[in-house]
Structures are given as C-alpha cells and as structure tokens.
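pinging the channel bc i need a second pair of eyes. not urgent but kinda urgent?? the chain im working w is below, pasted from the shared doc
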Amino acid sequence: MNTEDKAQPKGYKKPRIFFLLGLIATTGYLTFFSVKATTPEMNKITLPPGFSIAPYFKGITRARSMALSPSGVLYVGSRNLNGDVTAVVDKNKDGVGDLSYVVAKKLNGPLGMAYKDGDLYIGLINGVVKLKDIDNHLSDPPEPVPVNLNLPSDMAHGHKYIRFGPDGWLYIPVGAPCNVCERDWTKYACLMRMKPDGSNLQLYAQGIRNTVGFDWHPVTKELWFTDNGRDWLGDDLPPDELNCAPKPGLNFGYPYRYGKNVKDPEYGDKRPNDADFTPCRVPLGPHVAALGMRFYTGDMFPPSYKNQIFIAEHGSWNRSKPLGYRITCVSFPEGKPPVYEVFADGFLNSSGIPSGRPADLCQMPDGSLLVSDDHGGTIFRITYKK
C-alpha cells in the first residue's frame, strides 16, 4: 500500500474484500468505484422517534461537501478528479430540490465548498478557486478565478475540505501524503487558513492526519474537527477522532500519537514528550471514516439536540467487519463525559454491502439536516415532527 508501511501486528490479516477500496482511498489514482447496491430507500434507515429521512435530490456523482447560500441555493462538490460542481434549487420551497445546474466542470477534485459575499469558493486538490456572483449566474456560470493554487497537490489525502470561520478567514486542511510517515509538518498533516483573497496563508494546527469536516461551536466559537486515524493496526485501532482547537498552534499528535495521547507503535518513540501534543476530545469508532460534522443550531429538532455535533461517518474500507456507514451524534451533558451515539443507521445491509455512504452535512434554514451520499449520488433530508 504505502512504502512507509512496516510489518503488521502479529496475527493480523488485511481484509481482502476491502483491499481495492483501500487502494483507491490511499492513492487516489482511481476516480470511480461502485459495488452492487440497493438504494437507501429500500433499506430501513433507523432514526430516533419522530425523525424521518427522504431524498432531497438525486443524481450527483460522488456528492461530497455542501454549502448553502443565503438565497437557498445548495452547492455540492464532488470527489472526482475531473469533477463537476452542482447547484440545487428548491424552487417550490417544499423541501425537495427541483432544479440543478452544473456551475463548474472538470475541476481537479472539487470536493470543498464554501460561500461568502456572493462568491462560491471551491477547494481543489492543489488549492482554491472561486465563482463570482454565482447565485445570479446559475445558467451562465463564470470561469473559476484562482484564489490560491500553491498548496501541496499530493493525491493521497489531497482533497481539500474548506470553510470560512467566524474570523472571516478561509480554513483549508492539507492531509498527510501517506498512511503513516514523517514529512515537513508545516506543509502536511495540518490545518491552514488564509484571507478570502488567498493572501497571508498561515499554519493554524498540526498533527492532523486527514480532516474532512470541521465547524465552530455556536457559543464559544471554538474550532472542532474530525480526523481519520491511520490504517493497518488491526480492526480496532486507532480510533478516528473528534478534536477541539480553541486557539492556533496546537499539535494533535500524528504520526506520533493517536486518541488520548496513545503512542503509535512505529513512530511514538521518536517524540517521547506527551506534553507536546493535545489529546483528542472524543475518540470515535475505529476506521469509521468520520468526515463532515456540524453543530446543530436549528429549532426543528428537539431542544436536546441544540448545539450538539452530528458526524457523517463514511464507513470503513479496511476492517474485517465494516463499521460506520451512519450518522452519529456527540452530546456534552453538563459535568459528565461526552456521549457518542448512533443517530441514523442502516446505510449498510446485513451482507456488508453499502446502499449509501454519508459524506457531509448541511443545516437548512427550517432546521432540517441535509446529508450527502457519495456512493449513491443522493442528497437526503432529515426532518423531525412530534
């Protein structure tokens, strides 16, 4: 898989069924993969009482990150290397997307979506471009304008998820270009930020193997993010992570530590001082591929969900028994440890074949929650009614 991989733990065998998926995930050389699957509507997606899920829009190939403009246009990115960006409009205001427009074509992995001041910013493998005044030009979109195209463009963990923070800066991660290795950590395995015009690119946090989802606490404005753990330490190690970076300059351990400051068996002894690292706030399931995350701030869901975190778990590819393929929720009871539990399950059937793979989340103005599925190419809408 990677030249940096060494001997595996005694008795561990790489699961054969997910080997090709692993090749795709770690190299990025293949841009399309499908398995025979039913549609999620044919599965029984389990949700807490009162919640329901239904398609919002279908037919977006490898739908990934989402951004919503103030006028209600939903922009959806793609993980394809020559991918398109799609705009979806709910013209009838009935909770279902009616119209779609391809507003950018054949971009270099246009996964990241962020909207600011009338412009759509698009995270590519090598940086960021933007479409100016895009809401008013859905049927005649402008050419992408470069914002900053000087970021590392390695294929492994090279797709760039982007979002604007409360400070007005654009945050953009650069993943590790490997499974586990040592590199220049001021350029890789980090989270960076820059001004909206692409200037003043600076390092915000380090030791982050690959984050594909982050959000800011609606009250404290602290930055929280998911991080995907390394591979080939067995089925149950390491956990994926939910981290908190309330200030710049923190290091979250990769490749020397994982989880609650646990030493990596290959690289841990190269950095013996635990005090150098910030442990993860909440260990998530092992290899669940935690991607998009959102603090819920709407009024549709019960009050207990207010300011809690929803996480899209894309699902494991290198576990003998698949895990993930679901939406989870992390709550923070006062004076108690965080609670990490499944919210929506059923995207994986009893035979281990996925019908969908949740990738990103987007809260709508009415308080409903959109979920992108890059396996079936569908955007789902989760609603609540007593």
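so The domain at 16-384 is CATH 2.120.10.30 (Neuraminidase). and Residues 1-38 have pLDDT under 50 and may be disordered. — does that match what u expected or am i reading it wrong
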